[in-house]
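User: Here's a chain of 157 residues. Predict its fold as tokens.
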Amino acid sequence: MAADRVERDVLIEAPIQIVWEVISEPEHIVHWFSDEASLDLRPGGDGVLTWSGMATNEAGAYRLRFEAVEPPRRLTYRWVHPLGEDPQPGNSTLVEFTLSEEGANTRLRVVETGIQAMPWPEAEKEEFADSHGNGWARHLERLGVYAPAVAAKRPVA
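Assistant: Prediction complete.
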């Protein structure tokens, strides 16, 4: 049976405000996550993340809907839902980013849930959980390099 959740976390050598910007602003997202990003960053706002080659096995555009936008601590959205349907439990997974300060660094935790509720055969759920587990690990590794570089370019407060 496939896992119902994928969890990853990373300690990033950058202040929490920088990490928030890097996970929530399209001009930063394209450096560590997707090839293109268009976001209406507010609860109920929609977005599209597009992959054509950035660390993915399959190109595509994925629509999302924000559920929580609480700068600089929490960002959640639903995605992977069928075209023409509103994302909800049972037709989408929920991605939650949680940020916390650890000294001058930031702990970023990503949890994607709802895999077992998806209307897919068990083998597809297992492939999704494996793929997203590996994908989040790769993306967070890149984020862990990119965010400190952004912080280094900022003047010290």
